[in-house]
Write a structure and sequence with these properties.
The structure is a single chain. This protein has 4 helices and 6 strands, in the order ααββββαβαβ. By secondary structure, it is α+β, with helices and mostly antiparallel strands. It folds into 2 domains: 79 residues; 77 residues, Chitinase A, domain 3, CATH 3.10.50. The chain has a 6-stranded mixed beta sheet. The two termini are 17 Å apart.
């Protein structure tokens, strides 16, 4: 069976799988958001607590807590945007002839091992049900996969010079072969 003659019934299954992945991604992001909100509330409480008042001109406990609260507030805003973006993410179905783009579910082979990645705008590094690792387009592997097709190979890591590369450098240099796109 050629790629062009694959049955259409597989696209419904792919859409259901991606909807499940999106729901799992949103749940993970919402859990991180709840944790960040709790940390923000604790930092605000620490900054405004009576014990945070300076005892002398060198005491900066309250000031440090307020800086922490401001930083965590930024993280809360990032996570709120991530949840909104992930919730609204279009679930496009890709064919084997399509180029990899945001929303693609990609199978790659690396050193004889098959891995599955899902390209999403947020949530990079999360492992979702089915051992699907979320990649963002800004991650090294995500950047390497964008625009590639089935049977393409891509290198992840830097170009290696045989004389200057140590054992650790060789381990970071990876060759991925794209075996499927959904």
């Amino acid at each position: 069976m050629t790629r062009a003659s694959k049955p259409a019934s597989g696209s419904a299954g792919k859409a259901t799988a991606k909807a499940s992945l999106r729901a799992a991604l949103v749940a993970e992001l919402e859990a991180a958001l709840a944790s960040a909100r709790a940390a923000h509330a604790a930092a605000i409480e620490g900054a405004t607590h009576a014990e945070a008042r300076p005892e002398n001109d060198k005491d900066t406990r309250g000031l440090e807590q307020s800086y922490l609260a401001r930083g965590i507030a930024g993280r809360v805003a990032e996570l709120e945007a991530a949840v909104a973006t992930a919730s609204a993410m279009a679930l496009r179905t890709f064919g084997d002839d399509d180029a990899i783009a945001l929303g693609a579910l990609v199978d790659v082979e690396e050193a004889g091992r098959t891995r599955r990645f899902w390209l999403a705008a947020h949530g990079g590094g999360l492992v979702l049900p089915g051992e699907v690792t979320v990649l963002t387009p800004t991650s090294p592997i995500g950047r390497a996969l964008l625009g590639k097709h089935v049977d393409d190979e891509c290198e992840v890591g830097g170009a290696l010079e045989a004389e200057s590369a140590g054992p650790d450098d060789r381990q970071r240099h990876r060759l991925l072969t794209i075996t499927a796109i959904a």
